[in-house]
Amino acid sequence: MEVFIPDFNFVIDGRKSVRKVSDMMSFWNDKDAAQKAVDAGDPLVYEVYACETTGEGELSYALTILYPGKVGQEFYMTKGHFHQKLTGEVYLCLRGKGKLVLENREGNTRVLEMSPGKVTYVPAGFAHRSVNTGKENLEFMAVYNTDAGHDYGSIERDGFKELITKE
Ligand code: M6P
Ligand code: ZN
Fold first, then answer.
1. For the segment 41-93, what is each residue's pLDDT rounded down to a tens digit?
2. Would you say 127 and 60 are in contact if contact means Cβ atoms under 8 Å apart?
3. Is 27 in the pocket of ligand 1 (CB under 6 A)?
4. Which of 25, 80, 108, 140 has its CA 20 to 30 A from that of 158?
5. 144 CB less than 6 Å from ligand 1?
6. Gap between the Cα atoms of 16 and 48, Å rounded
7. Do residues 91 and 112 lie in contact, with contact meaning Cβ atoms separated by under 8 Å?
């Protein structure tokens, strides 16, 4: 199958969010390593360019650029979230190498591979976190329901069962 990989050397006209190590203190497994990274300059972990629409039934989409690196043994990752509303999400990996970690409220887990051209699906009811296990940027497009909402609370408190420390 031929896969079309868009050239992402353009800036998406969207809202940009920036996450540094210090913005995610409660999400890292190794808090001492996280504090050391903050003290050493607080590196950028990821950026999200989100185009969020309004209106029932609409879709929103976001480009995430997740930089390579580790905090302790743990690869750089997104915070990860559940949707407030029971809705799925589609990911298209554009560049780099990584994993998409899924976990539902019952603790069922799946880890999917991300590589350029690969599409992965997050079923409704699964929290999702992307992890950069490579040496270059991991870049991906996500498409989700505009009403989905981001619920970070339980991930912030309990984390994911899967800790990604190996490629
Ligand atoms: C993807 C989508 C976005 C999300 C982003 C970063 O682009 O799932 O909705 O905001 O990744 O993930 P998080 O919000 O968990 O930090
Ligand atoms: Zn989502």
1. 999 999 998 888 888 888 998 999 999 999 999 999 999 999 999 999 999 99
2. no
3. no
4. 140
5. yes
6. 5
7. no
For the purposes of burial, counting CB atoms within 10 Å of the CB of 110, is it exposed (0-12), middle (13-18) or buried (19 or more)? middle
Q: Residue 3: is its pLDDT beyond 70? A: no
Under 8 Å between Cβ of 166 and 70: no
Ligand of minimum distance to the alpha carbon of 27 = 1
Q: What atom in ligand 1 is closest to the CA of residue 64?
A: 7
> Is residue 155 classed as helix, strand or coil in its secondary structure?
helix
Mean pLDDT, rounded, for 133-144: 96
CA dihedral for 161, 154, 60, 67, sign (positive or negative): negative
pLDDT digits 0-9 by tens, 14-34? 678 999 999 999 999 999 999
Q: What is the pLDDT of residue 151?
A: 97
CA distance 115 to 40: 31
Closest Cα to atom 3, ligand 1: which residue?
62
Contact 161, 111 (CB under 8 A): no
